[in-house]
Specification:
By secondary structure, the chain is of the alpha+beta class. About 35% of the residues lie in helices and about 25% in strands. The chain has seven helices and twelve strands. The strands form four sheets. The protein has a four-stranded mixed β-sheet with strand order 1-2-5-4. The protein has a four-stranded antiparallel β-sheet with strand order 3-6-9-10. It has a two-stranded antiparallel sheet with strand order 7-8. Strand 4 (about 80-85) and strand 5 form a beta hairpin. The longest helix has 13 residues, at about 25-40. It is globular, with a radius of gyration of 20 Å.
């Protein structure tokens, strides 16, 4: 086996690597592109099964499908880099997805084609994903707010009001709760809770964790007043 490819496959799937046995659906690929672009970047290794078995692909067809996923099924589009590795006559395609500087990158789950311009448009609202371990997870409203704030954060000053203090004190007494529970328990408007959590995460006061089903928010150690 090609030594470089062998090392990658030995790592298995993780937060920056995903195996694809074959490419048949650009929309599904777009979810992985979105998740990597919105997190720390990563690579799709196409032509390898989840168990590490090398099945191989037809590189030209796979590259076309990957470019379609990244450039047509993602908003904004993502520029990817490709490398092909040949092992015992089988071709494996490695697609590198860089972290985006224009988050959120949203994936189009379904499309319609304009009959006059042939332009691809989303049928429904595009969805942003994040990469957690070896899964692509739908981004929470707090993620979306963080990305929104990052675009205008230069020179932005955040002053903590009574609502921020109330939320911080609540999190100090209650560990790892989902957004809806926080909103219900504090009595604060949902929008206020989302904006405040985003600010607290950006200032490294609150942590956002995924428990396998949902995102949970918890005050970081040492942040308790």
């Amino acid at each position: 086996m090609h030594s470089f490819l062998e090392k990658l496959i030995a790592q298995g799937e993780h937060d920056r690597q995903d195996f694809k046995y074959k490419v048949m659906d650009a929309a599904k690929l777009a979810k992985s592109v979105s998740a990597f672009a919105n997190t720390n970047g990563g690579r799709l290794i196409i032509g390898v099964r989840d168990d590490g078995f090398i099945s191989g692909v037809t590189s030209e067809e796979e590259i076309f499908m990957m470019r379609t996923a990244a450039e047509k099924y993602c908003i904004p589009s993502v520029q990817t880099n490709f490398q092909t590795v040949i092992h015992k006559g089988k071709t494996v395609l490695i697609c590198e997805v860089p972290p985006s500087s224009d988050k959120p990158v949203c994936a189009i789950d379904d499309i319609i084609i304009d009959p006059q311009t042939a332009e691809i448009k989303p049928k429904d609202r595009p969805t942003a994903y994040v990469r957690v371990d070896d899964e692509n997870i739908v981004a929470s409203p707090v993620h979306l707010q963080i990305w929104k704030d990052q675009k205008v954060e230069n020179g932005m000053v955040v002053q903590f009001s009574d609502d921020e203090r109330k939320l911080t004190e609540f999190l100090a007494e209650n560990h790892a709760l989902p957004l809806n529970r926080i909103v219900k328990s504090t009595g604060l408007p949902r929008r206020k809770v989302v904006v405040t959590l985003a600010n607290l995460i950006r200032f490294d006061i609150v942590a956002c964790l995924f428990d396998g089903k949902q995102f949970l928010f918890s005050l970081k150690a040492g942040s308790k007043n």
